[in-house]
Each structure stands twice: as structure tokens, then as C-alpha cells.
Amino acid sequence: MQTLDQTAPARRGTIRQSVQRHMYRWHRVIGLITVLPVICWTLSGLLHPLMSNWLRPKIAREALPPLPAPRPALPLTQVLRQHNLTQLRNVRLVRWRGQPAYQLLIDGPTARPRYFNATSGAALPADADRQYAEQLARYFAQDSTTGIRRAERLTRFDAEYKFVNRLLPVWKVTFERPDGLTVYVETMPARLATFNNATRAAFIRSFDALHSWSWVEWLSGSNTVRVLLMLALLTIIIGSAVSGLVIYGFMWGRFRRPRNAADKVGWLRKYHRAVGLAVALVTLTFASSGAFHVYLKLHPDERLRYQHAPILAADRLAVDLTQLPLDWARVQNVALAEFDGELYYQVFQLPAEDADHTNGKPTGASTGQPVEVVSAAPISYYRASTGQLLLEGAERHARFLATRFFQQAAGPYAATPAIEQTALVDHFEGEYGFINKRLPVVKVVLRTPSQTTLYVEPATGRLAARVDNLDRYEGLSFAFLHKYHAVGSLGKNIRDAITMLAAAGVLAVSLLGLWLFVKVKH
Fold it and tell me: Rounded to an integer, what is the distance from CA 454 to the centroid of its chain?
């Protein structure tokens, strides 16, 4: 027993000495593995505040003005009969080159709308949607004279119009201007999606390559490969930060100090240690929150799959839109909505006059770029079969959409949870941040173990966002540990400056470590 008691401390001492002997070597090896990814991520982190704040281009108008919709002189049902259209998906009223027009979605949800004069019923040109997109882009840019270099309809995201913009399909309208202004607009409903100039487009491409590593997915053909590679490297970065903290924070006395002023290796170690200790915490917060954020990317965001826009038989419009008891001076637009087995006219009304000029909010839809709050238009629902007003129609529609989307995701045999709460959301805040782009939406809270909350956009019948507890934890982690929203009360400029300073510190310690390695080798 005495021999065993003497052997155990000796073995522990041997292990401790081995760890101490190899700690520096491990730190150096894992640091070398991750030095290039760290440089990429920190450089792109420095780029982000520039492209999203300080060097972000400006545009003259960010939302359409709250105006009454053009009142159609010709019934919708007559236009449908005139052109032998027996079905449709949706309808809106627009001003096309100053003319009142019906905008009809007849084919699939991503198909081009067709346009018909609301006075004569005549079909407008086949490229009417492109012309309407150019009309919208010129309004947002407040540029009626510059030529249009190109107008391209996008039905998928690309290198410049990323998934973060959420809205599809959109038109990409590029102006013949020195700054290369490009305006992305959605035509149904009409709204600004985003806008870029040549400088910001270059920033976006650089950030995508250096920070998101989309090139890995392009090379491998797999998002999973990209995510797993980033997770592996972020885990190693965390290990490098921890080992550096142990070496330079707790075991520094065991490593060589600068012998004299000419001892460059010793002084490099000292500076590497000082900067490393200063940024150790932010390195861990950047890497850990980034890893959590990337981990959730293993499950692709499929919110765009969820839209309720069924094919509707034209003969279901027993009562025409023009026969509804509407105050057309207050009608902002109309649409169709089908739920609970009934077809309804969805009537978006202008806010009351006292709200138009006092709250400073644009009305209608917004993408959060840069508009972050809207004055939600009141919505009334009229049965297309009888013309009767449906009480609490907006809430019933939102409940239907949320239930349908949950069932679609969970499968046909899953139980449908009860709805605990609904609430209108007209601004970005908390778990429904500007990253979701759509406003106004209705928040529908479901009674599930993960507190599932669906945000639905009644104007389009789309799912704007789904938030479960895991998403909430990740959102808080990313907001406070990666983007430093904890100092948001000091203003966006201060927050971005702090973020850039932290990224620059991590970059500096990586470069010092690389320089130290080169000096030691030589």
C-alpha cells in the first residue's frame, strides 16, 4: 500500500510535467492550423460595420407613400371573363404608368404577374411587370432620367442578392450611373427589397468569401461540408485561445522572458502574450457564438417554402370587388385570402388621418432595410361569396396560417398545438429582428415544449419566421457575444467601433503569433 501511495503522486507529477512540456507545442500547432481562418474572419469582421453602417449607400426613398389605391372602373370578374381566365391566385391594384390596373397572379407563386387595364380591361404588355419594377426602382431612387442598364428578374438568391434579404421573387434594376446603383424591388406586393452600389456589392462578395465561406459549399456542393469545416476550425480556435490563456496567463513563469533588448523572440513573446491576454475573452466569445450560429446552419432555413397561395376558381368570386361597401378614399390596396374553406377579399386600409402625420411611420410593407418600423394598415376581410364583413378576420387569418405552416413542418400525423397568443408586430425587436425583413407581421405563440412562435405575413400568406427555444438561445448568444448588442444603448456607431476594435485585437494577436513562429524557425 505504501508503494502505491508513493507511485500515484509520482505519476501525477509526470503527467503534469508532460502537459507543461508539450503545452506550448500544442498551442503553436493549433494556432498555425487556424491562423489563416482567423485572419479571414477578423478582416471580414472589420468590413462588416463599413458595409452595413458607415459606407452603406443611401437611397432617396425607402418605402412607398400611403396613397389610396386606384379605384377600378371595370369589375374584376368581367376582366377575368373577357380574357377567359378561369382561375387565379391573387390580385392587387396598381398604378401602371399612371393607369389604374389589375395585377393578377395566375400561375405559380413565383410566376410573373399579368396586368390588365382596370378601366378598359385591355391586357397590358407582356413585359408590364418589368416596366412596373423599373417604375418602382425609379421612385425609390428618385431618378426619372438616368437610363436603365439592365432589369433582371430573380427567382433565387445569388452572390450579391443573398438569402439574408429573404424576399423572392424580385427584380434587380441596375441604373446607368457612375456609382452602379442597383435597386431590388418586389412587385407583388410593391416594396423595396434592398439596394447596392458598386462599392457595397464588392464588400458583400468579400464578406461572403471571407466570413461565410460560400466558396466551400460551391466547391463541395454541400452546405454540410461547409458547416462542419467551420465548426472544426472554430473548435480549434477555442482550444488555441484556452491553451494560450493557460500558457501566458497561468504558466508564464515557466517560459523564457526577454534576456535583453536585442532578444527579439523574447519581446515578440511578451507582446503576443500581452495582446493575447487582452483579447482572450473576446476571442472566446467570437468563436463560441460563431460556432453556435454555424451549428444551426446544419438545418437549412426553409421559411420560403411556407406560403399559402392556392389556385382559386374565378367563379368563387360571386360578389365582385367593385360591389363591396368600401370607402375607396381609405383603401390602400386589396388582395385575396383563402382560409377555413372560404375565399375573402383582403382590404388594406389607410391609417386614420391623425396617424398619418404624427407617428412618422411609413405605411404598408417594409423589409427593414433600412426601414425598421411601419404603421400597419388595418385589414378587413369580406366574403367573396356574399360580400359580408368577417369579424376579427385578421386574427383568424393569422391563426390559420400559423396552424397550417406548423402542420406542414411537423407532418400530417403530428398533433396541432393550441394557440396561446397572437399579437400584431409593426417593428423589429427582440427575437423578431431586422434580419427577418418583413413587416407588419402577426406573432402567433403555440403551446409546445420549445415555445414555438410563428411570425406570419398576412399580406402575402407567407411565413416570416419561426422561433423555438434553441433559436432564442442562439439569437441571444450571437447578439451579445458576437455583435455586442449589450452596448447598443451607446448607439450603433459606438457598438460598431467596439466590435471593430475587438476584431482588430484578435487579428493582431494572430499576426504576432505567426511572426513569432517565423522568427523561432529562423
Answer: 16
Most confident of 60-74, 230-244, 278-292, 345-359: 60-74
Phi, psi of 222, rounded to the nearest 5 degrees: -145, 125
Angle value at C-alpha 365, between 360 and 368, nearest 5 degrees: 75
When comparing pLDDT for 505 and 20, which is higher?
Answer: 505
Q: Is 81 exposed, middle or buried (0-12, 13-18, 19+ CB in 10 A)?
A: middle
Q: How many residues does the chain have?
A: 522
Residue that has been written with the C-alpha cell 385575396 in this structure? 336
State the Cα–Cα distance between residues 346 and 324, nearest whole angstrom: 11
Q: How far apart are the first and last CA of the chain?
A: 52
Distances (CA, A) of 453 to 80, 97, 178, 422: 39, 41, 45, 10
3-class DSSP assignment, residue 196:
strand
CB 388 within 8 A of CB 324: no
The pLDDT of 350-360, averaged and rounded, is: 54
* Segment among 368-382, 428-442, 475-489 with least mean pLDDT: 368-382
Q: Which residues contact 30 (CB under 8 A, 6 or more apart)?
A: 236, 239, 240, 243
**41-50, 157-166, 246-255, 342-351: least confident range:** 246-255
CB 80 within 8 A of CB 101: no
Are the beta carbons of 319 and 387 closer than 8 angstroms?
yes
Which residue's C-alpha cell is 378561369?
A: 86
> 430, 436 in Cβ contact below 8 A?
no
Phi-psi region of 13 (alpha: psi -120 to 50; beta: other; left: phi over 0): alpha
Cell of 459: 399580406
What is the C-alpha separation between 120 and 101, in angstroms, rounded?
A: 9
416 or 56: which carries more pLDDT confidence?
Answer: 416
DSSP state of 165: G
Per cent of the chain over pLDDT 70 is: 83
* pLDDT of res. 358: 38
Q: Tell me if the pTM is above 0.85.
A: yes
H helical segments located in 361-415? 393-410
Question: 3-class DSSP state for residue 264?
Answer: helix
Binning pLDDT at 50, 70 and 90, where does residue 113 land?
very high
Which pLDDT score, from 0 to 100, does residue 293 have?
A: 94
Predicted local distance difference test score (pLDDT) of residue 49: 86
State the residue for C-alpha cell 456589392: 201
Neighbouring C-alpha atoms within 13 Å toward the C-beta of 383: 10
pLDDT, residue 304, reads 94
φ, ψ at 335 (rounded to 5°): -160, 180
Query: How far apart are the C-alpha atoms of 509 and 34, rounded to whole Å?
Result: 12
State how far the alpha carbon of 515 is from the alpha carbons of 220, 249, 388, 412, 522, in Å: 32, 20, 76, 59, 11
**Site of grid cell 459606438:** 494
DSSP states of 415-451: PPPPEEEEEEE-B-BTTB-GGG--BSEEEEEE-STT-
| Secondary structure element (H or E) that encloses residue 114, with its range | strand 114-117
